[in-house]
Amino acid sequence: MKSEHIYLRPLEPEDIDFLYQWENDPDVWKVSNTITPYSKFILKQYIETSHLSIFETKQIRFIIVLSDTNRPIGTIDLFDFDPYNRRAGIGVLIYDKENRQRGYASEALKLIIEYGFKTLDLHQLYCNVNPKNKASMRLFTNHGFIPVGIKKEWVRIQNHWQDEILLQLVQ
């Protein structure tokens, strides 16, 4: 899957070092609801099984890569895949701070929306966003996602509770 500046590709064995860095960054944990570090052993197993069908694993992850340099800058995931109800959640992360706010997440989101609706025949996609994350709110609403509810005090971050907004895109 390609767009003007990026392309999405599956996980490769050589991705282990930057996945290890990203997955073990406490700043990333705030948006991924993770509280436990990942070992390289676990990440290696994850990469080795990433070829399995989304119908088996209920998730799929793509690496977001800059087309001009072939440098990975982030990930985009479909998770909680529910083939019966034809829906899945979306998560996107541009890890390299110097590549944020340049439209790469928007390009990746456009590609994954098309993949979800055309290839997987989904009826809807959803995401969960912290209301303080204005960039993510703008990203998803610019792609047609509509806020449908607030999950009150849903996420605990450093002993404080924060709300989470549920957004949906229904085709």
Explain what you see.
The two termini are 20 Å apart. Strand 6 (146-157) and strand 7 form a beta hairpin. Helix 1 crosses helix 3. Strands 1-2-3-4-5-7-6 form a 7-stranded mixed sheet, with helices on both faces. It contains 6 helices and 7 strands, in the order βααααβββαβαββ. The chain has 171 residues and is α+β, with helices and mostly antiparallel strands.
Which features characterize this protein?
171 residues; alpha+beta; seven-stranded mixed beta sheet; 6 helices; 7 strands; 31% helix; globular
Assembly classification: single chain
Strand content: 25-35%
SSE order: EHHHHEEEHEHEE
Termini, distance in Å? 20 Å
Tell the overall outline. globular
Mean pLDDT: 90
Write down how many β-strands occur, each being a DSSP E stretch of 2 or more residues. Answer: 7
Q: Which residues form runs of ≥5 with pLDDT under 50?
A: none
Helix content: 25-40%
* Order of neighbouring strands in the sheet with most strands: 1-2-3-4-5-7-6
Computed over alpha carbons, the radius of gyration is 16 Å
Query: Which structural class best describes the helix and strand composition?
Result: alpha+beta
Number of helices: 6
Largest sheet: 7 strands, mixed
Topology of helices and strands:
Elements: E1 6-9, H1 16-23, H2 26-32, H3 40-48, H4 54-57, E2 60-66, E3 72-82, E4 87-94, H5 104-119, E5 124-129, H6 134-142, E6 146-157, E7 160-170
Parallel strand pairs: 4-5
Antiparallel strand pairs: 1-2, 2-3, 3-4, 5-7, 6-7
Helix pairs in contact: 1-3
Brief characterization of the structure:
This protein is 31% helix and 35% strand.
